[in-house]
Design a protein that fits this description.
Helix content is about 65%, strand content about 0%. It is mainly α. α2 crosses α3. The longest helix has 14 residues.
Length: about 70
Amino acid sequence: GEDVSSVAIRARIRKLIADEVPEKPLSDAQLAEVLSREGVKVARRTVAKYREALGLASSSERRQAAARA
């Protein structure tokens, strides 16, 4: 893939999570796969690091929050 800034990747992760179905949140691996299909090669560990830096919960935490809502 082409070089993409970490800021752009973080923004894309935030958008993907904002647009996901609350009952079926995307895992870090699924987020990495979506980014890969868009031409952005990024490891699952990196997705997790960026997601945590953005203050976004893990997929299991997001699923539990949706179930409580």
